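hiii, so i know i said id send this last week but things got crazy w the move. better late than never?? heres the sequnce for the chain we talked about at the cafe, plus the structure i predicted for it. fair warning i was half asleep when i ran it
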Amino acid sequence: MYIKTPNTVKINQVYLINILGQIENSWNILNTNSSYEFKIPVNNVSNGVYIIRVETNKKSINKKVLVQH
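okay and structure toks below
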């Protein structure tokens, strides 16, 4: 699963949140070389519905995603 933003929008933090609202995992992207794109590793995540929360230098965005292996 990939997240990509325009060059003017830097990704600071990414959260993987389960349907109960619990944070399953989070990644701090701010101090990496590729803060405009990020691959979310879902190999070790159980199948199900999750919320991806992306915090950027402009705003925060929540998207519902379905993980199926």
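btw The chain has one domain: 2-67. thought thatd interest u
miss u guys!!
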